[in-house]
Protein backbone atom coordinates (compact mmCIF):
# COMPACT_ATOMS: atom_id res chain seq x y z
CA UNK A 1 0.00 0.00 0.00
CA UNK A 2 1.26 3.48 -0.89
CA UNK A 3 2.10 6.01 1.78
CA UNK A 4 0.61 9.33 0.65
CA UNK A 5 2.49 12.51 1.50
CA UNK A 6 -0.09 15.30 1.69
CA UNK A 7 -0.11 19.06 2.02
CA UNK A 8 -3.19 20.88 3.27
CA UNK A 9 -6.46 21.50 1.44
CA UNK A 10 -6.45 24.28 -1.18
CA UNK A 11 -2.67 23.83 -1.32
CA UNK A 12 -0.18 26.63 -1.90
CA UNK A 13 3.31 26.29 -3.34
CA UNK A 14 4.93 25.33 -0.02
CA UNK A 15 2.35 22.59 0.63
CA UNK A 16 2.76 20.99 -2.78
CA UNK A 17 6.52 21.41 -3.11
CA UNK A 18 7.20 20.08 0.40
CA UNK A 19 5.04 17.02 -0.34
CA UNK A 20 6.89 16.35 -3.60
CA UNK A 21 10.33 16.83 -2.06
CA UNK A 22 9.65 14.83 1.10
CA UNK A 23 8.17 11.95 -0.90
CA UNK A 24 11.32 11.97 -3.04
CA UNK A 25 13.54 11.82 0.06
CA UNK A 26 11.48 9.03 1.62
CA UNK A 27 11.66 6.99 -1.60
CA UNK A 28 15.46 7.16 -1.40
CA UNK A 29 15.64 6.31 2.30
CA UNK A 30 12.99 4.66 4.44
CA UNK A 31 9.75 4.48 2.42
CA UNK A 32 10.08 3.51 -1.25
CA UNK A 33 6.27 3.36 -1.43
CA UNK A 34 5.89 7.09 -0.63
CA UNK A 35 3.82 9.07 -3.14
CA UNK A 36 3.28 12.83 -3.21
CA UNK A 37 -0.40 13.75 -3.20
CA UNK A 38 -2.56 16.85 -2.95
CA UNK A 39 -6.23 17.51 -2.26
CA UNK A 40 -6.69 20.24 -4.83
CA UNK A 41 -5.20 21.31 -8.13
CA UNK A 42 -2.01 23.40 -8.05
CA UNK A 43 -2.48 27.11 -8.67
CA UNK A 44 -0.89 28.88 -11.63
CA UNK A 45 2.15 29.90 -9.63
CA UNK A 46 2.78 26.34 -8.47
CA UNK A 47 2.26 25.06 -11.99
CA UNK A 48 4.98 27.46 -13.09
CA UNK A 49 7.30 26.01 -10.43
CA UNK A 50 6.66 22.40 -11.43
CA UNK A 51 7.17 23.17 -15.11
CA UNK A 52 10.45 25.01 -14.50
CA UNK A 53 11.61 22.22 -12.19
CA UNK A 54 10.62 19.49 -14.64
CA UNK A 55 8.77 17.71 -11.85
CA UNK A 56 5.48 15.85 -12.23
CA UNK A 57 2.51 17.21 -10.27
CA UNK A 58 1.45 15.23 -7.21
CA UNK A 59 -1.39 12.74 -7.42
CA UNK A 60 -4.72 14.49 -6.84
CA UNK A 61 -6.68 12.67 -4.12
CA UNK A 62 -9.73 14.43 -2.71
CA UNK A 63 -10.71 11.76 -0.19
CA UNK A 64 -8.54 9.05 1.37
CA UNK A 65 -11.34 7.09 2.98
CA UNK A 66 -10.91 3.53 1.67
CA UNK A 67 -13.12 2.64 -1.25
CA UNK A 68 -14.58 -0.74 -2.05
CA UNK A 69 -12.03 -1.41 -4.79
CA UNK A 70 -9.27 -0.96 -2.19
CA UNK A 71 -10.52 -3.86 -0.03
CA UNK A 72 -12.23 -6.23 -2.48
CA UNK A 73 -10.76 -9.51 -3.72
CA UNK A 74 -9.23 -9.24 -7.19
CA UNK A 75 -8.43 -11.98 -9.71
CA UNK A 76 -11.94 -13.35 -9.37
CA UNK A 77 -13.07 -16.80 -10.54
CA UNK A 78 -16.16 -16.37 -12.73
CA UNK A 79 -18.61 -18.36 -14.82
CA UNK A 80 -20.84 -17.65 -17.80
CA UNK A 81 -24.19 -18.69 -19.13
CA UNK A 82 -23.62 -21.95 -21.01
CA UNK A 83 -21.08 -23.27 -18.51
CA UNK A 84 -22.02 -26.59 -16.92
CA UNK A 85 -22.21 -27.88 -13.36
CA UNK A 86 -19.10 -30.04 -13.50
CA UNK A 87 -16.65 -27.37 -14.70
CA UNK A 88 -18.07 -24.65 -12.45
CA UNK A 89 -18.03 -26.93 -9.42
CA UNK A 90 -14.40 -27.81 -10.10
CA UNK A 91 -13.46 -24.11 -10.23
CA UNK A 92 -15.24 -23.37 -6.98
CA UNK A 93 -13.74 -26.41 -5.28
CA UNK A 94 -10.18 -25.53 -6.32
CA UNK A 95 -10.53 -21.98 -4.99
CA UNK A 96 -12.65 -22.97 -1.97
CA UNK A 97 -15.40 -20.56 -3.01
CA UNK A 98 -18.98 -20.54 -1.84
CA UNK A 99 -20.21 -18.23 -4.62
CA UNK A 100 -18.98 -16.70 -7.87
CA UNK A 101 -20.16 -13.91 -10.15
CA UNK A 102 -21.60 -14.68 -13.57
CA UNK A 103 -20.31 -12.43 -16.35
CA UNK A 104 -20.98 -11.88 -20.03
CA UNK A 105 -18.38 -11.69 -22.79
CA UNK A 106 -17.60 -8.07 -21.79
CA UNK A 107 -17.10 -9.05 -18.14
CA UNK A 108 -20.27 -7.24 -17.16
CA UNK A 109 -21.85 -8.91 -14.15
CA UNK A 110 -25.20 -10.54 -14.97
CA UNK A 111 -25.77 -12.75 -11.94
CA UNK A 112 -24.42 -14.69 -8.98
CA UNK A 113 -24.19 -18.43 -8.45
CA UNK A 114 -23.77 -19.85 -4.97
CA UNK A 115 -22.66 -23.37 -4.15
CA UNK A 116 -26.11 -24.12 -2.73
CA UNK A 117 -27.79 -22.98 -5.93
CA UNK A 118 -25.35 -25.06 -7.93
CA UNK A 119 -26.09 -28.21 -5.91
CA UNK A 120 -29.81 -27.64 -6.44
CA UNK A 121 -29.25 -28.46 -10.11
CA UNK A 122 -28.52 -32.03 -9.09
CA UNK A 123 -30.67 -32.60 -6.02
CA UNK A 124 -33.68 -30.29 -6.01
CA UNK A 125 -36.00 -32.71 -7.89
CA UNK A 126 -35.13 -35.93 -6.04
CA UNK A 127 -38.83 -36.64 -5.40
CA UNK A 128 -39.81 -36.51 -9.07
CA UNK A 129 -38.33 -39.43 -11.10
CA UNK A 130 -38.92 -37.68 -14.42
CA UNK A 131 -37.28 -34.43 -13.36
CA UNK A 132 -34.42 -36.34 -11.79
CA UNK A 133 -33.67 -37.84 -15.22
CA UNK A 134 -33.83 -34.46 -16.98
CA UNK A 135 -30.58 -32.82 -18.01
CA UNK A 136 -30.38 -29.49 -19.84
CA UNK A 137 -27.13 -29.59 -21.76
CA UNK A 138 -25.56 -30.26 -25.15
CA UNK A 139 -23.88 -33.37 -26.50
CA UNK A 140 -20.50 -31.73 -26.78
CA UNK A 141 -20.68 -30.74 -23.09
CA UNK A 142 -21.58 -34.32 -22.18
CA UNK A 143 -18.67 -35.62 -24.21
CA UNK A 144 -16.33 -33.13 -22.56
CA UNK A 145 -17.46 -33.89 -19.00
CA UNK A 146 -17.23 -37.65 -19.35
CA UNK A 147 -13.87 -37.37 -21.06
CA UNK A 148 -15.23 -39.26 -24.06
CA UNK A 149 -15.28 -38.92 -27.81
CA UNK A 150 -17.85 -39.03 -30.58
CA UNK A 151 -18.09 -42.13 -32.74
CA UNK A 152 -20.80 -40.29 -34.61
CA UNK A 153 -22.11 -36.77 -33.85
CA UNK A 154 -25.37 -35.01 -34.68
CA UNK A 155 -25.67 -31.27 -33.87
CA UNK A 156 -23.31 -31.55 -30.90
CA UNK A 157 -23.66 -27.90 -29.79
CA UNK A 158 -27.44 -27.87 -29.83
CA UNK A 159 -29.01 -27.19 -26.43
CA UNK A 160 -31.24 -30.08 -25.43
CA UNK A 161 -33.46 -31.03 -22.53
CA UNK A 162 -32.59 -34.70 -22.35
CA UNK A 163 -34.03 -37.64 -20.42
CA UNK A 164 -31.32 -40.02 -19.24
CA UNK A 165 -32.13 -43.74 -19.48
CA UNK A 166 -29.74 -46.42 -18.27
CA UNK A 167 -29.85 -49.72 -20.16
CA UNK A 168 -29.44 -51.91 -17.08
CA UNK A 169 -32.63 -54.00 -17.33
CA UNK A 170 -33.84 -56.72 -19.69
CA UNK A 171 -34.06 -55.81 -23.33
CA UNK A 172 -37.85 -56.27 -23.36
CA UNK A 173 -38.45 -54.17 -20.26
CA UNK A 174 -36.12 -51.49 -21.51
CA UNK A 175 -37.79 -51.30 -24.93
CA UNK A 176 -41.25 -51.07 -23.40
CA UNK A 177 -40.18 -48.31 -21.05
CA UNK A 178 -38.23 -46.41 -23.68
CA UNK A 179 -41.23 -46.14 -26.01
CA UNK A 180 -43.12 -44.11 -23.39
CA UNK A 181 -40.84 -41.09 -23.99
CA UNK A 182 -40.18 -38.86 -27.03
CA UNK A 183 -37.24 -40.31 -28.89
CA UNK A 184 -35.67 -36.90 -29.61
CA UNK A 185 -35.29 -36.28 -25.87
CA UNK A 186 -33.75 -39.61 -24.91
CA UNK A 187 -30.08 -40.29 -24.20
CA UNK A 188 -29.43 -43.97 -23.52
CA UNK A 189 -26.46 -45.03 -21.40
CA UNK A 190 -25.16 -48.61 -21.37
CA UNK A 191 -22.19 -50.88 -21.80
CA UNK A 192 -21.48 -53.34 -24.59
CA UNK A 193 -25.11 -54.59 -24.87
CA UNK A 194 -26.31 -54.84 -28.49
CA UNK A 195 -29.76 -55.98 -27.23
CA UNK A 196 -30.16 -52.50 -25.67
CA UNK A 197 -28.29 -50.56 -28.34
CA UNK A 198 -30.33 -51.88 -31.29
CA UNK A 199 -33.82 -50.95 -30.03
CA UNK A 200 -32.50 -47.55 -28.91
CA UNK A 201 -31.13 -46.85 -32.37
CA UNK A 202 -34.27 -48.11 -34.07
CA UNK A 203 -36.34 -45.86 -31.79
CA UNK A 204 -34.23 -42.91 -33.03
CA UNK A 205 -33.01 -41.65 -29.66
CA UNK A 206 -31.08 -38.37 -29.51
CA UNK A 207 -27.86 -40.09 -28.42
CA UNK A 208 -26.41 -43.39 -27.33
CA UNK A 209 -23.57 -43.44 -24.81
CA UNK A 210 -21.44 -46.60 -24.86
CA UNK A 211 -19.60 -46.99 -21.55
CA UNK A 212 -16.64 -49.02 -20.30
CA UNK A 213 -14.32 -47.96 -23.13
CA UNK A 214 -16.28 -50.03 -25.71
CA UNK A 215 -17.21 -48.94 -29.22
CA UNK A 216 -20.35 -49.56 -31.20
CA UNK A 217 -20.07 -52.36 -33.72
CA UNK A 218 -19.67 -51.27 -37.32
CA UNK A 219 -23.14 -52.50 -38.28
CA UNK A 220 -24.87 -50.66 -35.45
CA UNK A 221 -22.73 -47.61 -36.09
CA UNK A 222 -23.95 -47.50 -39.71
CA UNK A 223 -27.54 -47.90 -38.51
CA UNK A 224 -27.09 -45.12 -35.94
CA UNK A 225 -25.80 -42.83 -38.65
CA UNK A 226 -28.76 -43.68 -40.86
CA UNK A 227 -31.24 -42.97 -38.03
CA UNK A 228 -29.47 -39.72 -36.97
CA UNK A 229 -28.49 -41.10 -33.58
CA UNK A 230 -25.37 -39.56 -32.07
CA UNK A 231 -22.93 -42.02 -30.49
CA UNK A 232 -20.60 -41.06 -27.63
CA UNK A 233 -17.92 -43.37 -26.26
CA UNK A 234 -17.17 -43.10 -22.52
CA UNK A 235 -14.06 -44.46 -20.79
CA UNK A 236 -15.98 -44.83 -17.49
CA UNK A 237 -18.35 -47.46 -16.25
CA UNK A 238 -22.10 -46.92 -16.57
CA UNK A 239 -22.65 -45.59 -13.04
CA UNK A 240 -19.83 -43.04 -13.26
CA UNK A 241 -20.83 -42.01 -16.76
CA UNK A 242 -24.44 -41.45 -15.69
CA UNK A 243 -23.36 -39.32 -12.75
CA UNK A 244 -21.13 -37.22 -14.98
CA UNK A 245 -23.89 -36.74 -17.53
CA UNK A 246 -26.08 -35.33 -14.77
CA UNK A 247 -23.26 -32.96 -13.84
CA UNK A 248 -22.98 -31.74 -17.45
CA UNK A 249 -26.16 -29.71 -17.27
CA UNK A 250 -26.08 -25.95 -17.83
CA UNK A 251 -25.95 -23.71 -14.80
CA UNK A 252 -28.28 -21.15 -16.40
CA UNK A 253 -31.41 -22.01 -14.43
CA UNK A 254 -29.57 -21.80 -11.11
CA UNK A 255 -28.16 -18.31 -11.64
CA UNK A 256 -29.55 -15.61 -9.37
CA UNK A 257 -30.13 -12.49 -11.45
CA UNK A 258 -31.39 -10.47 -8.48
CA UNK A 259 -28.23 -9.37 -6.73
CA UNK A 260 -26.54 -6.35 -5.19
CA UNK A 261 -23.42 -5.01 -6.81
CA UNK A 262 -21.16 -2.32 -5.38
CA UNK A 263 -19.33 0.46 -7.16
CA UNK A 264 -15.58 0.26 -6.88
CA UNK A 265 -15.58 3.96 -5.94
CA UNK A 266 -18.09 3.50 -3.13
CA UNK A 267 -16.73 4.39 0.34
CA UNK A 268 -16.26 1.34 2.54
CA UNK A 269 -18.43 2.81 5.29
CA UNK A 270 -21.29 3.27 2.85
CA UNK A 271 -20.87 -0.24 1.46
CA UNK A 272 -20.86 -1.70 4.96
CA UNK A 273 -24.39 -0.40 5.60
CA UNK A 274 -25.61 -2.12 2.43
CA UNK A 275 -23.77 -5.41 3.01
CA UNK A 276 -24.88 -5.80 6.62
CA UNK A 277 -28.55 -5.83 5.60
CA UNK A 278 -28.14 -8.48 2.89
CA UNK A 279 -27.91 -12.26 3.01
CA UNK A 280 -26.06 -12.33 -0.31
CA UNK A 281 -22.89 -14.49 -0.05
CA UNK A 282 -20.75 -12.19 -2.20
CA UNK A 283 -21.08 -8.73 -3.71
CA UNK A 284 -19.65 -8.07 -7.16
CA UNK A 285 -17.58 -4.89 -7.32
CA UNK A 286 -17.98 -3.14 -10.65
CA UNK A 287 -16.89 -0.11 -12.62
CA UNK A 288 -19.38 2.59 -13.56
CA UNK A 289 -19.96 0.69 -16.79
CA UNK A 290 -20.78 -2.52 -14.90
CA UNK A 291 -17.54 -4.35 -15.66
CA UNK A 292 -16.27 -6.67 -12.93
CA UNK A 293 -13.39 -5.42 -10.74
CA UNK A 294 -13.58 -7.98 -7.94
CA UNK A 295 -15.85 -9.37 -5.26
CA UNK A 296 -16.50 -8.37 -1.69
CA UNK A 297 -17.61 -10.55 1.20
CA UNK A 298 -18.69 -9.42 4.63
CA UNK A 299 -15.43 -10.60 6.15
CA UNK A 300 -13.52 -8.14 3.93
CA UNK A 301 -15.15 -5.30 5.86
CA UNK A 302 -14.36 -6.53 9.36
CA UNK A 303 -11.00 -4.77 9.55
CA UNK A 304 -10.24 -3.02 6.25
CA UNK A 305 -6.73 -1.57 5.83
CA UNK A 306 -6.42 2.11 6.70
CA UNK A 307 -4.76 4.58 4.35
CA UNK A 308 -1.30 5.65 5.49
CA UNK A 309 -0.57 9.37 5.44
CA UNK A 310 2.30 11.75 6.09
CA UNK A 311 1.19 15.34 6.63
CA UNK A 312 3.33 18.28 5.55
CA UNK A 313 2.67 22.01 6.00
CA UNK A 314 -0.28 21.38 8.36
CA UNK A 315 -1.14 19.45 11.48
CA UNK A 316 -4.85 20.20 11.94
CA UNK A 317 -7.41 17.67 10.74
CA UNK A 318 -9.71 20.50 9.68
CA UNK A 319 -7.09 21.39 7.04
CA UNK A 320 -6.25 17.83 6.04
CA UNK A 321 -7.58 15.77 3.15
CA UNK A 322 -11.05 14.31 3.64
CA UNK A 323 -10.89 11.02 5.51
CA UNK A 324 -7.62 11.80 7.30
CA UNK A 325 -9.34 11.22 10.65
CA UNK A 326 -9.80 7.55 9.65
CA UNK A 327 -6.23 7.10 8.40
CA UNK A 328 -2.97 6.11 10.05
CA UNK A 329 -0.92 9.30 10.34
CA UNK A 330 2.71 8.19 10.24
CA UNK A 331 4.55 11.52 10.33
CA UNK A 332 3.95 15.27 10.51
CA UNK A 333 6.35 17.88 9.18
CA UNK A 334 5.10 21.42 9.73
CA UNK A 335 5.89 25.02 10.70
CA UNK A 336 2.45 26.17 11.91
CA UNK A 337 0.83 26.32 15.33
CA UNK A 338 -0.40 23.08 16.87
CA UNK A 339 -4.06 22.48 16.12
CA UNK A 340 -6.66 20.13 17.49
CA UNK A 341 -7.98 16.76 16.46
CA UNK A 342 -4.81 14.94 15.45
CA UNK A 343 -4.46 11.55 17.13
CA UNK A 344 -2.41 8.43 16.56
CA UNK A 345 -2.52 4.88 17.89
CA UNK A 346 1.29 4.64 17.90
CA UNK A 347 4.11 7.14 18.53
CA UNK A 348 4.90 9.07 15.35
CA UNK A 349 7.61 11.37 14.11
CA UNK A 350 6.35 14.92 14.65
CA UNK A 351 8.58 17.75 13.48
CA UNK A 352 7.16 21.23 14.10
CA UNK A 353 9.55 24.19 14.09
CA UNK A 354 9.06 27.96 13.86
CA UNK A 355 10.62 28.48 10.44
CA UNK A 356 9.25 30.31 7.43
CA UNK A 357 8.51 27.32 5.23
CA UNK A 358 7.92 23.58 5.46
CA UNK A 359 10.30 23.21 2.51
CA UNK A 360 13.02 24.51 4.86
CA UNK A 361 12.40 21.53 7.13
CA UNK A 362 12.38 19.09 4.22
CA UNK A 363 15.66 20.48 2.88
CA UNK A 364 17.20 20.04 6.34
CA UNK A 365 16.16 16.37 6.22
CA UNK A 366 18.04 16.03 2.91
CA UNK A 367 21.13 17.59 4.48
CA UNK A 368 20.90 15.40 7.58
CA UNK A 369 20.68 12.30 5.38
CA UNK A 370 23.71 13.43 3.36
CA UNK A 371 21.65 13.43 0.14
CA UNK A 372 21.94 16.22 -2.40
CA UNK A 373 18.53 16.71 -4.03
CA UNK A 374 18.21 16.60 -7.78
CA UNK A 375 18.04 20.08 -9.39
CA UNK A 376 14.27 19.88 -9.93
CA UNK A 377 13.61 18.84 -6.33
CA UNK A 378 16.00 21.52 -5.07
CA UNK A 379 14.14 24.16 -7.10
CA UNK A 380 10.82 22.90 -5.70
CA UNK A 381 12.08 23.37 -2.14
CA UNK A 382 13.57 26.77 -2.94
CA UNK A 383 10.22 27.81 -4.44
CA UNK A 384 8.36 26.81 -1.29
CA UNK A 385 10.73 28.94 0.80
CA UNK A 386 10.50 31.87 -1.63
CA UNK A 387 6.72 31.67 -1.61
CA UNK A 388 6.16 31.41 2.13
CA UNK A 389 8.82 33.96 3.14
CA UNK A 390 8.22 36.39 0.24
CA UNK A 391 11.83 35.68 -0.74
CA UNK A 392 13.11 36.09 2.83
CA UNK A 393 11.25 39.40 3.44
CA UNK A 394 8.37 38.07 5.55
CA UNK A 395 8.56 38.46 9.35
CA UNK A 396 8.27 34.66 9.51
CA UNK A 397 11.73 34.34 7.94
CA UNK A 398 14.42 32.85 10.17
CA UNK A 399 18.14 32.39 9.89
CA UNK A 400 17.43 28.72 9.24
CA UNK A 401 15.45 29.66 6.10
CA UNK A 402 18.26 31.90 4.88
CA UNK A 403 20.88 29.20 5.51
CA UNK A 404 18.83 26.48 3.78
CA UNK A 405 18.02 28.65 0.76
CA UNK A 406 21.73 29.48 0.45
CA UNK A 407 22.49 25.73 0.47
CA UNK A 408 19.83 25.02 -2.13
CA UNK A 409 20.73 27.78 -4.62
CA UNK A 410 23.77 26.12 -6.27
CA UNK A 411 21.81 22.86 -6.48
CA UNK A 412 18.94 24.54 -8.38
CA UNK A 413 21.04 25.62 -11.39
CA UNK A 414 19.11 28.92 -11.57
CA UNK A 415 19.62 32.51 -10.40
CA UNK A 416 17.15 32.58 -7.49
CA UNK A 417 16.84 36.39 -7.39
CA UNK A 418 15.77 36.48 -11.03
CA UNK A 419 13.65 33.35 -10.56
CA UNK A 420 11.85 34.86 -7.52
CA UNK A 421 10.90 37.94 -9.56
CA UNK A 422 9.42 35.68 -12.27
CA UNK A 423 7.68 33.59 -9.63
CA UNK A 424 5.75 36.51 -8.15
CA UNK A 425 4.87 37.89 -11.58
CA UNK A 426 3.33 34.57 -12.63
CA UNK A 427 -0.16 33.42 -11.88
CA UNK A 428 -1.98 36.42 -10.45
CA UNK A 429 -5.14 34.91 -8.96
CA UNK A 430 -6.99 38.20 -9.48
CA UNK A 431 -6.09 38.15 -13.16
CA UNK A 432 -6.82 34.50 -13.97
CA UNK A 433 -9.36 33.13 -11.46
CA UNK A 434 -13.06 33.50 -10.80
CA UNK A 435 -14.04 35.11 -7.48
CA UNK A 436 -14.96 31.69 -6.04
CA UNK A 437 -11.54 30.32 -7.07
CA UNK A 438 -9.73 33.31 -5.58
CA UNK A 439 -11.27 32.95 -2.12
CA UNK A 440 -10.65 29.19 -2.10
CA UNK A 441 -7.01 29.44 -3.18
CA UNK A 442 -4.72 28.69 -0.24
CA UNK A 443 -7.73 28.69 2.09
CA UNK A 444 -7.40 27.35 5.63
CA UNK A 445 -10.04 26.92 8.31
CA UNK A 446 -9.47 27.69 11.99
CA UNK A 447 -11.41 27.58 15.25
CA UNK A 448 -10.74 30.12 18.00
CA UNK A 449 -12.78 30.47 21.20
CA UNK A 450 -15.78 28.77 19.65
CA UNK A 451 -15.71 30.72 16.39
CA UNK A 452 -15.00 28.87 13.16
CA UNK A 453 -13.59 30.86 10.26
CA UNK A 454 -11.40 30.67 7.18
CA UNK A 455 -8.47 32.75 5.99
CA UNK A 456 -7.42 32.72 2.33
CA UNK A 457 -4.29 34.45 1.10
CA UNK A 458 -3.11 35.53 -2.34
CA UNK A 459 0.04 37.44 -3.34
CA UNK A 460 -0.13 40.16 -5.98
CA UNK A 461 2.09 42.81 -7.52
CA UNK A 462 0.09 45.80 -6.33
CA UNK A 463 -3.60 46.20 -5.55
CA UNK A 464 -4.89 47.60 -8.85
CA UNK A 465 -6.71 44.41 -9.87
CA UNK A 466 -8.27 44.09 -6.42
CA UNK A 467 -10.06 47.44 -6.56
CA UNK A 468 -11.72 46.40 -9.81
CA UNK A 469 -13.03 43.16 -8.24
CA UNK A 470 -13.60 44.15 -4.62
CA UNK A 471 -17.39 43.76 -4.60
CA UNK A 472 -17.48 40.38 -6.33
CA UNK A 473 -14.76 39.08 -4.03
CA UNK A 474 -16.79 40.17 -0.99
CA UNK A 475 -19.81 38.28 -2.40
CA UNK A 476 -17.67 35.20 -2.99
CA UNK A 477 -16.47 35.34 0.63
CA UNK A 478 -20.07 35.54 1.84
CA UNK A 479 -20.96 32.48 -0.25
CA UNK A 480 -17.90 30.57 1.03
CA UNK A 481 -18.78 31.37 4.63
CA UNK A 482 -22.37 30.25 4.13
CA UNK A 483 -21.44 27.06 2.24
CA UNK A 484 -18.89 25.98 4.87
CA UNK A 485 -21.12 27.06 7.80
CA UNK A 486 -18.45 29.45 9.10
CA UNK A 487 -18.83 32.46 11.36
CA UNK A 488 -16.90 34.50 8.79
CA UNK A 489 -14.37 34.20 5.96
CA UNK A 490 -11.39 36.45 5.33
CA UNK A 491 -9.18 37.12 2.30
CA UNK A 492 -5.69 38.53 2.81
CA UNK A 493 -4.38 40.21 -0.36
CA UNK A 494 -0.63 40.71 0.02
CA UNK A 495 1.41 43.08 -2.12
CA UNK A 496 4.85 41.49 -2.54
CA UNK A 497 6.27 44.87 -3.61
CA UNK A 498 5.19 47.03 -0.66
CA UNK A 499 5.09 44.23 1.94
CA UNK A 500 1.63 45.19 3.02
CA UNK A 501 -1.84 43.67 2.74
CA UNK A 502 -5.53 44.36 2.45
CA UNK A 503 -7.96 42.33 4.53
CA UNK A 504 -11.43 41.68 3.11
CA UNK A 505 -14.10 40.02 5.28
CA UNK A 506 -17.35 38.29 4.44
CA UNK A 507 -18.93 40.27 7.28
CA UNK A 508 -17.90 42.11 10.42
CA UNK A 509 -19.01 41.73 14.01
CA UNK A 510 -18.47 44.20 16.82
CA UNK A 511 -15.04 42.82 17.72
CA UNK A 512 -13.60 44.32 14.53
CA UNK A 513 -13.98 47.78 16.10
CA UNK A 514 -10.80 46.99 18.05
CA UNK A 515 -8.67 46.04 15.06
CA UNK A 516 -6.62 49.32 15.13
CA UNK A 517 -6.00 49.24 11.38
CA UNK A 518 -7.54 51.73 8.92
CA UNK A 519 -11.01 50.74 7.63
CA UNK A 520 -11.14 51.55 3.90
CA UNK A 521 -14.63 50.32 3.07
CA UNK A 522 -17.30 47.95 4.27
CA UNK A 523 -15.53 44.80 5.57
CA UNK A 524 -12.18 46.06 4.20
CA UNK A 525 -9.04 47.02 6.17
CA UNK A 526 -5.55 48.21 5.28
CA UNK A 527 -2.88 46.16 7.08
CA UNK A 528 0.50 47.80 6.49
CA UNK A 529 3.51 45.55 7.12
CA UNK A 530 1.26 42.52 7.59
CA UNK A 531 2.14 39.70 5.17
CA UNK A 532 1.97 36.52 7.24
CA UNK A 533 -1.28 34.70 7.85
CA UNK A 534 0.10 32.42 10.55
CA UNK A 535 2.36 34.84 12.45
CA UNK A 536 0.53 38.13 12.09
CA UNK A 537 -3.08 37.86 10.94
CA UNK A 538 -4.19 34.71 12.79
CA UNK A 539 -2.91 35.92 16.19
CA UNK A 540 -4.61 39.28 15.55
CA UNK A 541 -7.96 37.66 14.79
CA UNK A 542 -7.65 35.33 17.79
CA UNK A 543 -6.96 38.34 20.04
CA UNK A 544 -9.98 40.23 18.69
CA UNK A 545 -12.28 37.25 19.26
CA UNK A 546 -10.90 36.66 22.73
CA UNK A 547 -11.24 40.34 23.74
CA UNK A 548 -14.86 40.42 22.56
CA UNK A 549 -15.74 37.68 25.05
CA UNK A 550 -15.06 40.01 27.98
CA UNK A 551 -16.93 43.05 26.74
Mean pLDDT: 90
Gross morphology: elongated
How many beta-strand runs? 23
| Percent of residues in beta strands | 15-25%
Number of helices in the DSSP assignment: 20
Summarize the amount of helix as a percent range: 25-40%
Catalogue the unreliable spans.
none
Major sheet summary line: 6 strands, parallel
Distance between the termini: 53 Å
- The appropriate CATH architecture of the largest domain is Alpha-Beta Complex
Q: Which structural class do the helices and strands define?
A: alpha/beta
Radius of gyration from CA coordinates: 37 Å
Q: Which CATH class of the largest domain?
A: Alpha Beta
Query: Strand sequence of the main sheet, in spatial order?
Result: 3-2-1-15-16-17
The CATH superfamily of the largest domain is inorganic pyrophosphatase (n-terminal core)
Q: What's the number of structural domains?
A: 4
CATH topology (fold) name of the largest domain? inorganic pyrophosphatase (n-terminal core)
Characterization of the model:
- This protein is α/β, with parallel strands linked by helices and 551 residues long.
- 37% of the residues lie in helices and 21% in strands.
- It has four domains: 3-66 and 306-425, Alpha-Beta Complex (inorganic pyrophosphatase (n-terminal core)), CATH 3.90.1640.10; 70-119 and 253-301, CBS-domain; 147-247, HprK N-terminal domain-like (Udp-n-acetylmuramoylalanyl-d-glutamate--2,6- Diaminopimelate Ligase, Chain: A, domain 1); 429-548, Diaminopimelate Epimerase, Chain A, domain 1.
- It contains 20 helices and 23 strands.
- The protein has a six-stranded parallel beta sheet with strand order 3-2-1-15-16-17.
- Strand 20 and strand 21 form a beta hairpin.
- The longest helix has 20 residues, at 464-483.
